[in-house]
Amino acid sequence: MKIHEYQAKEIMSARGIPVPLGRMATSVEEAVAAVRPLIEESGNPVVVLKSQIHAGGRGKGTFKEYPDLRGVNVITEGVDGGPDAAEERVRELAGKMLGSTLVTIQTGPEGKVVNRLYLEQGIDIDRELYLAILLDRSVSRNIVMASTEGGMEIEKVAEETPEKILREEIDPAIDLADFQANALAHGLGIEGDTTSSFVRFVKALDRAATELDTDLIEINPLVITGGGEVMALDGKMGFDDNALFRHPDIAAMRDQTEEDPAELAAKEAGLSYIKLDGTIGCLVNGAGLAMATMDTIKHVGGEPANFLDVGGGADEQQVTTAFQIITKDPSVKGIFVNIFGGIMRCDVIAAGIVAAVKKVGLEVPLVVRLEGTNVEEGKRILNDSGLDLVAADSLKDGAEKIVELTR
How far from each other are the two terminal CA atoms of the chain, in whole angstroms? Predict the structure, then answer.
Protein backbone atom coordinates (compact mmCIF):
# COMPACT_ATOMS: atom_id res chain seq x y z
CA MET A 1 0.00 0.00 0.00
CA LYS A 2 1.24 3.48 -0.89
CA ILE A 3 0.42 6.77 0.79
CA HIS A 4 0.74 10.41 -0.22
CA GLU A 5 3.72 12.65 0.53
CA TYR A 6 1.80 14.68 3.11
CA GLN A 7 0.85 11.47 4.95
CA ALA A 8 4.43 10.21 4.92
CA LYS A 9 5.57 13.52 6.39
CA GLU A 10 2.91 13.34 9.11
CA ILE A 11 4.35 9.95 10.10
CA MET A 12 7.92 11.23 10.03
CA SER A 13 7.10 14.37 11.98
CA ALA A 14 5.36 12.34 14.69
CA ARG A 15 8.59 10.35 15.05
CA GLY A 16 10.80 13.41 15.38
CA ILE A 17 12.16 13.21 11.83
CA PRO A 18 12.59 16.78 10.52
CA VAL A 19 10.21 17.80 7.70
CA PRO A 20 9.11 21.25 6.45
CA LEU A 21 5.90 22.75 7.77
CA GLY A 22 2.96 22.02 5.48
CA ARG A 23 -0.80 21.78 5.09
CA MET A 24 -2.93 19.55 2.84
CA ALA A 25 -5.82 20.94 0.78
CA THR A 26 -8.58 19.35 -1.28
CA SER A 27 -10.07 22.61 -2.56
CA VAL A 28 -8.88 25.97 -3.81
CA GLU A 29 -10.24 27.70 -0.72
CA GLU A 30 -8.41 25.32 1.61
CA ALA A 31 -5.17 25.92 -0.28
CA VAL A 32 -5.57 29.70 -0.09
CA ALA A 33 -6.50 29.55 3.60
CA ALA A 34 -3.27 27.67 4.35
CA VAL A 35 -0.97 30.34 2.89
CA ARG A 36 -0.99 33.03 5.56
CA PRO A 37 -0.70 30.72 8.61
CA LEU A 38 2.14 28.86 6.93
CA ILE A 39 4.06 32.05 6.14
CA GLU A 40 3.55 33.37 9.66
CA GLU A 41 4.53 30.11 11.35
CA SER A 42 7.63 29.51 9.23
CA GLY A 43 8.70 33.14 8.91
CA ASN A 44 9.34 32.51 5.21
CA PRO A 45 7.31 34.31 2.50
CA VAL A 46 8.15 31.57 -0.02
CA VAL A 47 5.75 28.61 -0.19
CA VAL A 48 5.61 25.54 -2.43
CA LEU A 49 2.41 24.09 -3.95
CA LYS A 50 2.71 20.36 -4.60
CA SER A 51 0.42 17.95 -6.42
CA GLN A 52 -0.35 14.81 -4.41
CA ILE A 53 -0.54 11.62 -6.46
CA HIS A 54 0.98 8.17 -6.00
CA ALA A 55 3.81 8.72 -8.47
CA GLY A 56 7.25 10.24 -8.54
CA GLY A 57 8.62 12.87 -10.88
CA ARG A 58 5.91 15.39 -9.98
CA GLY A 59 8.30 18.34 -10.09
CA LYS A 60 9.13 17.67 -13.73
CA GLY A 61 5.64 16.47 -14.62
CA THR A 62 3.14 18.61 -16.54
CA PHE A 63 -0.64 18.71 -16.81
CA LYS A 64 -2.50 17.53 -19.89
CA GLU A 65 -4.84 20.49 -19.60
CA TYR A 66 -2.02 23.01 -18.90
CA PRO A 67 1.18 21.84 -20.65
CA ASP A 68 3.23 24.73 -19.27
CA LEU A 69 2.24 24.05 -15.64
CA ARG A 70 4.40 21.82 -13.46
CA GLY A 71 3.19 19.44 -10.78
CA VAL A 72 5.24 21.29 -8.13
CA ASN A 73 5.39 25.10 -8.10
CA VAL A 74 7.46 27.47 -5.99
CA ILE A 75 5.45 30.58 -5.04
CA THR A 76 7.74 33.61 -4.62
CA GLU A 77 5.15 36.37 -5.00
CA GLY A 78 5.03 36.74 -1.22
CA VAL A 79 8.61 38.03 -1.10
CA ASP A 80 7.66 41.45 -2.52
CA GLY A 81 3.86 41.38 -2.30
CA GLY A 82 3.39 39.77 1.10
CA PRO A 83 0.79 37.10 2.00
CA ASP A 84 -1.91 38.71 -0.17
CA ALA A 85 0.17 38.23 -3.32
CA ALA A 86 1.09 34.67 -2.33
CA GLU A 87 -2.59 33.86 -1.71
CA GLU A 88 -3.59 35.20 -5.10
CA ARG A 89 -0.97 33.12 -6.88
CA VAL A 90 -1.94 29.99 -4.95
CA ARG A 91 -5.59 30.61 -5.86
CA GLU A 92 -4.67 30.79 -9.55
CA LEU A 93 -2.48 27.69 -9.56
CA ALA A 94 -4.67 25.55 -7.30
CA GLY A 95 -7.65 26.27 -9.55
CA LYS A 96 -5.74 24.77 -12.46
CA MET A 97 -4.06 21.88 -10.65
CA LEU A 98 -7.05 20.41 -8.82
CA GLY A 99 -9.07 18.12 -11.05
CA SER A 100 -6.45 18.19 -13.84
CA THR A 101 -4.37 15.26 -15.09
CA LEU A 102 -0.68 15.23 -14.15
CA VAL A 103 1.67 13.23 -16.38
CA THR A 104 5.05 12.21 -14.95
CA ILE A 105 7.75 9.73 -15.85
CA GLN A 106 6.06 7.23 -13.50
CA THR A 107 2.40 7.68 -14.43
CA GLY A 108 2.74 6.85 -18.09
CA PRO A 109 1.05 8.98 -20.79
CA GLU A 110 -2.40 8.50 -19.22
CA GLY A 111 -1.38 10.47 -16.13
CA LYS A 112 -3.28 10.77 -12.84
CA VAL A 113 -5.95 13.23 -11.73
CA VAL A 114 -4.86 15.52 -8.89
CA ASN A 115 -7.41 15.58 -6.06
CA ARG A 116 -5.12 16.80 -3.27
CA LEU A 117 -2.54 19.55 -2.93
CA TYR A 118 0.14 20.10 -0.30
CA LEU A 119 1.24 23.61 0.59
CA GLU A 120 4.68 23.68 2.19
CA GLN A 121 7.09 26.26 3.52
CA GLY A 122 10.04 27.25 1.34
CA ILE A 123 13.40 25.90 2.48
CA ASP A 124 16.89 27.39 2.20
CA ILE A 125 18.62 24.47 0.46
CA ASP A 126 22.39 24.06 0.54
CA ARG A 127 22.62 20.46 -0.77
CA GLU A 128 20.27 17.83 -2.18
CA LEU A 129 20.87 14.13 -1.46
CA TYR A 130 19.05 10.84 -1.98
CA LEU A 131 18.16 8.47 0.86
CA ALA A 132 15.98 5.35 0.95
CA ILE A 133 15.34 2.34 3.14
CA LEU A 134 13.93 -0.54 1.18
CA LEU A 135 13.40 -4.26 1.47
CA ASP A 136 15.99 -6.22 -0.50
CA ARG A 137 14.25 -9.52 -1.13
CA SER A 138 17.47 -11.15 -2.31
CA VAL A 139 18.86 -11.00 1.24
CA SER A 140 15.52 -10.72 3.13
CA ARG A 141 16.69 -7.57 4.88
CA ASN A 142 16.16 -3.84 4.73
CA ILE A 143 18.99 -1.88 3.17
CA VAL A 144 19.89 1.80 3.15
CA MET A 145 20.62 3.36 -0.22
CA ALA A 146 22.08 6.85 -0.40
CA SER A 147 23.54 9.07 -3.08
CA THR A 148 24.87 12.57 -3.59
CA GLU A 149 22.59 12.82 -6.64
CA GLY A 150 19.47 14.04 -4.85
CA GLY A 151 16.50 15.18 -6.94
CA MET A 152 17.34 12.76 -9.79
CA GLU A 153 15.63 9.46 -10.66
CA ILE A 154 17.66 6.85 -8.80
CA GLU A 155 17.22 4.45 -11.75
CA LYS A 156 19.08 6.94 -13.97
CA VAL A 157 21.85 7.30 -11.40
CA ALA A 158 22.17 3.50 -11.12
CA GLU A 159 22.46 3.20 -14.90
CA GLU A 160 24.83 6.09 -15.59
CA THR A 161 26.90 6.51 -12.40
CA PRO A 162 26.39 3.44 -10.19
CA GLU A 163 29.49 4.30 -8.16
CA LYS A 164 27.55 7.22 -6.67
CA ILE A 165 25.09 4.90 -4.89
CA LEU A 166 26.04 3.90 -1.35
CA ARG A 167 24.53 0.84 0.27
CA GLU A 168 24.39 -0.53 3.81
CA GLU A 169 22.64 -3.77 4.76
CA ILE A 170 20.70 -3.61 8.04
CA ASP A 171 21.02 -6.47 10.54
CA PRO A 172 17.51 -6.84 12.03
CA ALA A 173 19.00 -7.98 15.33
CA ILE A 174 20.76 -4.67 15.98
CA ASP A 175 19.19 -2.23 13.46
CA LEU A 176 21.39 0.24 11.58
CA ALA A 177 24.66 0.54 13.50
CA ASP A 178 26.31 3.87 14.27
CA PHE A 179 29.39 2.98 12.24
CA GLN A 180 27.17 2.30 9.21
CA ALA A 181 25.34 5.61 9.57
CA ASN A 182 28.66 7.42 9.94
CA ALA A 183 30.04 5.62 6.89
CA LEU A 184 27.06 6.83 4.88
CA ALA A 185 27.58 10.39 6.11
CA HIS A 186 31.25 10.26 5.13
CA GLY A 187 30.41 8.82 1.71
CA LEU A 188 27.92 11.66 1.12
CA GLY A 189 30.50 14.27 2.07
CA ILE A 190 28.64 15.36 5.21
CA GLU A 191 30.90 16.96 7.80
CA GLY A 192 30.88 18.64 11.22
CA ASP A 193 27.73 18.96 13.29
CA THR A 194 25.62 17.97 10.30
CA THR A 195 27.01 14.43 10.64
CA SER A 196 25.25 13.98 13.98
CA SER A 197 22.00 15.30 12.48
CA PHE A 198 22.27 12.86 9.58
CA VAL A 199 23.01 9.90 11.85
CA ARG A 200 19.97 10.67 14.00
CA PHE A 201 17.85 11.10 10.87
CA VAL A 202 18.78 7.84 9.16
CA LYS A 203 18.56 5.79 12.36
CA ALA A 204 15.08 7.18 13.09
CA LEU A 205 14.08 6.33 9.53
CA ASP A 206 15.37 2.78 10.05
CA ARG A 207 13.28 2.39 13.21
CA ALA A 208 10.20 3.64 11.36
CA ALA A 209 10.77 1.14 8.55
CA THR A 210 11.00 -1.76 10.99
CA GLU A 211 8.15 -0.76 13.28
CA LEU A 212 5.74 0.13 10.47
CA ASP A 213 6.50 -2.83 8.19
CA THR A 214 7.40 -0.67 5.21
CA ASP A 215 8.88 -2.09 2.04
CA LEU A 216 10.05 1.37 0.92
CA ILE A 217 10.79 4.75 2.46
CA GLU A 218 12.29 7.10 -0.10
CA ILE A 219 13.46 10.66 0.57
CA ASN A 220 14.29 12.38 -2.71
CA PRO A 221 15.59 14.87 -2.11
CA LEU A 222 16.93 14.77 1.39
CA VAL A 223 18.26 18.29 1.90
CA ILE A 224 20.84 19.98 4.05
CA THR A 225 19.64 23.48 4.77
CA GLY A 226 21.74 26.63 4.87
CA GLY A 227 21.81 26.23 8.65
CA GLY A 228 23.15 22.67 8.44
CA GLU A 229 19.88 20.90 9.30
CA VAL A 230 19.04 17.57 7.65
CA MET A 231 15.43 17.54 6.42
CA ALA A 232 13.10 15.42 4.27
CA LEU A 233 11.99 17.70 1.44
CA ASP A 234 9.99 14.88 -0.12
CA GLY A 235 8.70 11.59 1.23
CA LYS A 236 7.40 8.35 -0.24
CA MET A 237 6.29 5.32 1.78
CA GLY A 238 5.05 1.89 0.78
CA PHE A 239 3.78 -0.73 3.24
CA ASP A 240 3.51 -4.51 3.25
CA ASP A 241 -0.19 -5.25 2.68
CA ASN A 242 0.13 -8.46 4.68
CA ALA A 243 1.14 -6.50 7.79
CA LEU A 244 -1.56 -3.82 7.67
CA PHE A 245 -3.62 -5.67 10.28
CA ARG A 246 -0.96 -4.54 12.76
CA HIS A 247 -1.31 -0.90 11.69
CA PRO A 248 -4.97 0.15 11.41
CA ASP A 249 -3.90 3.80 11.52
CA ILE A 250 -1.78 3.26 8.42
CA ALA A 251 -4.50 1.24 6.68
CA ALA A 252 -6.89 4.15 7.24
CA MET A 253 -4.59 6.32 5.08
CA ARG A 254 -5.33 4.29 1.94
CA ASP A 255 -6.53 6.46 -0.95
CA GLN A 256 -8.49 4.14 -3.20
CA THR A 257 -8.85 6.83 -5.88
CA GLU A 258 -5.11 6.38 -6.53
CA GLU A 259 -5.31 2.63 -7.00
CA ASP A 260 -6.21 0.49 -10.00
CA PRO A 261 -9.91 -0.50 -9.63
CA ALA A 262 -9.09 -3.96 -10.98
CA GLU A 263 -6.39 -4.51 -8.34
CA LEU A 264 -8.79 -3.33 -5.63
CA ALA A 265 -11.47 -5.73 -6.83
CA ALA A 266 -8.92 -8.55 -6.85
CA LYS A 267 -7.79 -7.79 -3.30
CA GLU A 268 -11.37 -7.75 -2.05
CA ALA A 269 -11.96 -11.13 -3.70
CA GLY A 270 -8.75 -12.62 -2.28
CA LEU A 271 -7.00 -12.81 -5.65
CA SER A 272 -3.48 -11.79 -6.68
CA TYR A 273 -3.62 -9.49 -9.72
CA ILE A 274 -1.09 -7.20 -11.39
CA LYS A 275 -1.82 -5.28 -14.59
CA LEU A 276 0.78 -5.63 -17.34
CA ASP A 277 1.21 -4.07 -20.79
CA GLY A 278 0.36 -6.99 -23.06
CA THR A 279 -2.79 -8.23 -24.82
CA ILE A 280 -3.26 -11.80 -23.52
CA GLY A 281 -5.23 -12.11 -20.30
CA CYS A 282 -4.09 -14.92 -18.00
CA LEU A 283 -6.14 -16.78 -15.39
CA VAL A 284 -3.95 -19.27 -13.55
CA ASN A 285 -3.82 -21.04 -10.18
CA GLY A 286 -0.55 -20.77 -8.33
CA ALA A 287 2.07 -18.03 -8.50
CA GLY A 288 4.75 -20.33 -9.96
CA LEU A 289 2.47 -21.60 -12.70
CA ALA A 290 1.34 -18.03 -13.41
CA MET A 291 4.97 -16.96 -13.90
CA ALA A 292 5.65 -19.99 -16.11
CA THR A 293 2.53 -19.19 -18.13
CA MET A 294 3.62 -15.61 -18.73
CA ASP A 295 7.14 -16.74 -19.64
CA THR A 296 5.78 -19.27 -22.13
CA ILE A 297 3.47 -16.71 -23.73
CA LYS A 298 6.45 -14.39 -24.23
CA HIS A 299 8.59 -17.28 -25.49
CA VAL A 300 6.11 -18.02 -28.30
CA GLY A 301 5.80 -14.37 -29.30
CA GLY A 302 2.97 -12.96 -27.18
CA GLU A 303 2.71 -10.46 -24.34
CA PRO A 304 0.75 -11.17 -21.13
CA ALA A 305 -1.79 -8.51 -20.10
CA ASN A 306 -1.75 -9.46 -16.44
CA PHE A 307 -0.57 -11.68 -13.64
CA LEU A 308 -3.66 -13.26 -12.05
CA ASP A 309 -3.40 -16.06 -9.52
CA VAL A 310 -6.72 -17.41 -8.21
CA GLY A 311 -4.85 -19.50 -5.65
CA GLY A 312 -5.38 -23.05 -4.54
CA GLY A 313 -8.69 -22.65 -2.73
CA ALA A 314 -10.73 -20.37 -4.97
CA ASP A 315 -14.48 -20.92 -5.24
CA GLU A 316 -16.77 -20.35 -8.20
CA GLN A 317 -17.45 -16.73 -7.24
CA GLN A 318 -13.73 -15.91 -7.08
CA VAL A 319 -13.18 -17.45 -10.49
CA THR A 320 -16.09 -15.43 -11.84
CA THR A 321 -14.59 -12.24 -10.36
CA ALA A 322 -11.20 -13.07 -11.87
CA PHE A 323 -12.76 -13.56 -15.29
CA GLN A 324 -14.66 -10.30 -15.00
CA ILE A 325 -11.47 -8.42 -14.11
CA ILE A 326 -9.73 -9.73 -17.22
CA THR A 327 -12.63 -9.05 -19.60
CA LYS A 328 -12.96 -5.45 -18.39
CA ASP A 329 -9.41 -4.69 -19.54
CA PRO A 330 -9.77 -3.05 -22.99
CA SER A 331 -6.25 -4.10 -23.99
CA VAL A 332 -7.06 -7.81 -23.70
CA LYS A 333 -7.46 -9.46 -27.14
CA GLY A 334 -7.57 -13.04 -25.90
CA ILE A 335 -7.73 -15.04 -22.66
CA PHE A 336 -5.67 -18.07 -21.62
CA VAL A 337 -6.96 -20.10 -18.68
CA ASN A 338 -4.25 -22.46 -17.44
CA ILE A 339 -5.23 -24.63 -14.48
CA PHE A 340 -3.29 -27.48 -12.89
CA GLY A 341 -5.75 -28.90 -10.38
CA GLY A 342 -4.32 -29.91 -7.04
CA ILE A 343 -6.24 -28.36 -4.19
CA MET A 344 -7.96 -26.23 -6.85
CA ARG A 345 -10.40 -28.52 -8.67
CA CYS A 346 -10.80 -28.27 -12.43
CA ASP A 347 -14.59 -28.56 -12.22
CA VAL A 348 -14.76 -25.48 -9.98
CA ILE A 349 -12.71 -23.50 -12.48
CA ALA A 350 -14.90 -24.71 -15.35
CA ALA A 351 -18.10 -23.77 -13.52
CA GLY A 352 -16.65 -20.35 -12.75
CA ILE A 353 -15.74 -19.76 -16.39
CA VAL A 354 -19.22 -20.71 -17.57
CA ALA A 355 -20.88 -18.49 -14.93
CA ALA A 356 -18.60 -15.56 -15.80
CA VAL A 357 -19.19 -15.78 -19.54
CA LYS A 358 -22.95 -15.96 -19.04
CA LYS A 359 -22.75 -12.88 -16.82
CA VAL A 360 -20.36 -10.63 -18.76
CA GLY A 361 -20.24 -12.19 -22.23
CA LEU A 362 -17.19 -13.14 -24.26
CA GLU A 363 -15.96 -11.07 -27.18
CA VAL A 364 -12.37 -12.32 -27.45
CA PRO A 365 -10.83 -15.76 -28.11
CA LEU A 366 -10.63 -18.09 -25.09
CA VAL A 367 -8.14 -20.95 -24.74
CA VAL A 368 -8.47 -23.30 -21.76
CA ARG A 369 -6.00 -25.88 -20.52
CA LEU A 370 -7.14 -28.05 -17.61
CA GLU A 371 -5.13 -30.78 -15.92
CA GLY A 372 -5.31 -32.51 -12.54
CA THR A 373 -8.08 -33.02 -9.97
CA ASN A 374 -11.53 -33.57 -11.51
CA VAL A 375 -10.19 -32.71 -14.96
CA GLU A 376 -12.69 -34.90 -16.83
CA GLU A 377 -15.61 -33.33 -15.00
CA GLY A 378 -14.19 -29.88 -15.74
CA LYS A 379 -13.89 -30.66 -19.45
CA ARG A 380 -17.44 -32.05 -19.48
CA ILE A 381 -18.80 -28.83 -17.95
CA LEU A 382 -17.05 -26.76 -20.60
CA ASN A 383 -18.09 -29.05 -23.46
CA ASP A 384 -21.75 -29.00 -22.35
CA SER A 385 -21.76 -25.22 -21.88
CA GLY A 386 -21.76 -24.42 -25.58
CA LEU A 387 -19.04 -21.79 -25.07
CA ASP A 388 -16.89 -20.86 -28.06
CA LEU A 389 -13.51 -21.87 -26.66
CA VAL A 390 -10.39 -23.72 -27.74
CA ALA A 391 -9.05 -26.59 -25.65
CA ALA A 392 -5.31 -26.99 -25.13
CA ASP A 393 -3.37 -30.14 -24.25
CA SER A 394 -0.40 -28.48 -22.56
CA LEU A 395 0.97 -25.16 -21.40
CA LYS A 396 2.98 -24.65 -24.58
CA ASP A 397 0.08 -25.76 -26.77
CA GLY A 398 -2.25 -23.30 -25.04
CA ALA A 399 0.24 -20.42 -25.27
CA GLU A 400 0.80 -21.04 -28.97
CA LYS A 401 -2.93 -21.20 -29.67
CA ILE A 402 -3.83 -17.99 -27.85
CA VAL A 403 -0.94 -16.11 -29.45
CA GLU A 404 -2.04 -17.28 -32.88
CA LEU A 405 -5.67 -16.32 -32.21
CA THR A 406 -4.73 -12.79 -31.13
CA ARG A 407 -2.49 -11.96 -34.07
Answer: 36
